[in-house]
Structures are given as C-alpha cells and as structure tokens.
Write a structure and sequence with these properties.
By secondary structure, the chain is of the alpha+beta class. It contains eleven helices and seven strands. Helix 5 (113-124) runs parallel beside helix 7 (155-225).
Length: 376
C-alpha cells in the first residue's frame, strides 16, 4: 500500500509528471506479503474445492489490487485526483466480491483482504464515504471474531484496518496537495506567458506605430521635395534610413525584454516627427526636473501623445509640458474622432501609468485635446 507523488524541486520550478517506472509496482507488491497467510492456508487444504476457490480468489485479489494501484499512480502522473465514479464503483465491486469469496472459502484467514479493501475505499472516495465504511469494516471483523464459531477475537486486525486507512489518507492528502500545487504553478506559468505576450504586443504597437508614422510622413515629404529641393530630399531619405534602423533596434530590444527609452531621446524624436508633419512644436529644453522613476513613463507618454497628434488630430500646433509629477501633450486639433474610444496605445499607456502609481488623464481643450500622465 504505497504510492508515488509528483514533487516540487524548488520554489517556482515544478518537476513534470514522470513516466511510470519499473520499481513503483514492485514497491506496491511488497505490501501484498500480508496475503501470504491466505495463500498458505489454501495451499495446505488442496485439492479441496474450497481451497482452490480461496487460492484463485486470493491471487486474483492481489493482482486486481496491484492493477488498481498502477492505475491510480498513472492518474496522479496526469494530475487526475480521482477516476470517474463508475470506474471507482467497478474497482470496489470487484475487490469486494473477491474478498467475500476469500472469506467464504478460507474462513477467518481470508479476512486479511479487509485491510486492502479499506485502503481501496480510502483511495477512491471522499471522507464522507470512506469514514463510515472503514468504521463498519473494523467493527465487522471484531464482531465476527467473537460471534463466528471457531473464529478468534481479532483486535489487531481491526487496528490494522484503521492504521492503514489513516496512513493512506495522509498519503492521499499529500498527493492531492502536490497536484493542486502543480496546477497552480502551471496556471502561473500560463498567466506569465500571457502577460509577456501582452507586453510584447503593447511595445511593438508603441514602437512601430510611432516609427512607421514618422517614416511614412518623411517618405511623403521626400516625394513632394523630389523635384523641388534635391538636397532636402537627400536629407529626408537619410533620415528615413536612420529611422528604419532605429525602429529595427527598438523592436529587437522589445523582443528581448528591454525598454531603453530615454526622455531626452523621445523629445528629440517628437521634434523631428512634428517638424516632418509640418506641425509647430513647443517642447521643453530640459528634463532635469523629472524624477528618475518617472522618466521612462513620461517618455512613453510623449511617444504615444505625439504619435496620436500626428495621426489623428489634424493639429497645427503641439505643445509638450513636463513637470516633476506630470507629462502632458497638448494640441489644437480635433481630438479623438469618436468620444470615449480608447486605442491599444492608450490602453498600454494606462497600464504603464497604473503600474507606476500614476493615472492617465485625457480632456478636451478649447480648441484641442490634452493627454497627460499625472503621478499620484
């Protein structure tokens, strides 16, 4: 009566369910040694019919119990705590029938099967079921030991039933806790993977959305200047190459899990992007007043705000304001085309703000629109 459970090697690292090994069934078979007395009793009475019945029933009982143990072990390896009810009832019925045949054929020595029967009930059913069954089995062997002619009083058998049941219940509880722990770790791993996918999607949107918008505008500007100002066209094309390389580097950093945004760098990008879009820019000359812990968040704020101004606002002027506790992007355009809608860029910025203990604030101006992140 033994079992094997999945183990946790270290916090946060779960050993996957193992394939069944050869030694497991051997360990379970050791406990079948207590059925040697019924086998010996049957063997001594051969070739009597009752002895043959008792011997065959004992051997089949041992094989069935071992098969049950292997099946339960396989279920645990697949993180299944209990098989379906019809399967449990089938196991119980077969072992109970064989135990009855053993007792009928061999007499009191056949009651050794009752210990295994009690353990089977503990393995297969919840406490509300197995507690009264175990109590009934222990009481039954005591009563029959006194009332059956030729039988001896057997308190040790009753004690064995209770002790074995308690031991197996403890093992079963440990197995169930380990299964729940493995499932919890699997759920945590799935959530972590989902969060990483969300982070990657958010970063790619923020990085590529901004960079591709600037590249598109510069390409359009270069096209308009092609027959007008050759030198300016060359400069714009050089900027296109540089921006493309920067976008590729940003994507690589995002995929690798790094976010190397700098507030001065985003201000410089905003100035270049707004100039290319022919939007008058009013930007701060210094970022020294912004605390270190807010610089990355404010950099993302400027990137998202300026990108939205260029894409959607139709503005002629854009202003970026920085304070120790606030980053704001204002424009004199029309703002969102549909009131109350939120794109994935603003959703990502909201998540970043919340994670940094800040809040995202959007409001209409007269005229224009304001997007700000304010530290609490």
């Amino acid at each position: 009566m033994t079992t094997n459970v999945a183990t946790v090697e270290s916090p946060g690292q779960v050993e996957p369910p193992r394939a069944l090994g050869r030694l497991g069934p051997m360990f379970a078979a050791i406990w079948l040694a207590f059925l040697l007395d019924p086998v010996r009793a049957a063997w001594s009475d051969l070739p009597a019919l009752h002895a043959w019945c008792g011997l065959v029933a004992t051997l089949v009982f041992a094989a069935t119990y071992l098969a049950l143990w292997v099946a339960m072990r396989s279920d645990r390896a697949r993180l299944v705590q209990l098989p379906p009810l019809r399967v449990r009832l089938a196991w119980t019925a077969v072992l109970s029938g064989l135990a009855v045949v053993m007792v009928a054929a061999l007499g009191q020595v056949g009651t050794a099967s009752v210990v295994y029967l009690a353990v089977t009930v503990v393995m297969l059913y919840p406490p509300v079921v197995f507690l009264p069954v175990v109590a009934a089995l222990a009481t039954g062997v005591l009563v029959t030991g006194i009332t059956m002619p030729g039988w001896e009083h057997s308190p040790w058998l009753a004690f064995s039933i209770i002790a074995a049941s308690l031991a197996v219940f403890g093992v079963r509880s440990m197995m169930n806790r380990n299964i729940e722990l493995i499932r919890a770790h699997e759920t945590s791993a799935e959530l972590a993977a989902e969060q990483e996918r969300t982070r990657l999607a958010r970063d790619l949107h923020d990085i590529l959305g901004h960079s591709l918008t600037v590249i598109t505008i510069k390409a359009e500007l270069a096209g308009r200047l092609l027959d007008v100002d050759t030198e300016r066209t060359r400069a714009e094309l050089a900027d296109l190459e540089r921006l493309s390389r920067d976008a590729l580097a940003d994507v690589r950093r995002a995929v690798e899990g790094y976010r190397e945004l700098t507030l001065p760098g985003e201000l410089a990008r905003a100035r270049t992007a707004l100039e290319a879009a022919e939007i008058e820019a009013s930007l701060p000359n210094s970022t020294d007043d912004v605390p270190t812990e807010l610089r990355e968040l404010f950099a993302w704020t400027i990137r998202e705000g300026v990108t939205n101004v260029i894409r959607h606002s139709g503005a002629r002027r854009c202003e970026v304001l920085l304070a120790p506790d606030r980053a704001e992007v204002r424009d004199d355009g029309r703002g969102p085309t549909v009131t109350g809608t939120t794109g994935s860029g603003l959703t990502g910025l909201q998540e970043r703000a919340t994670g940094a203990g800040a809040r995202l604030v959007t409001r209409r101006l007269d005229p224009g629109w304001s997007l700000a992140v304010v530290a609490e």
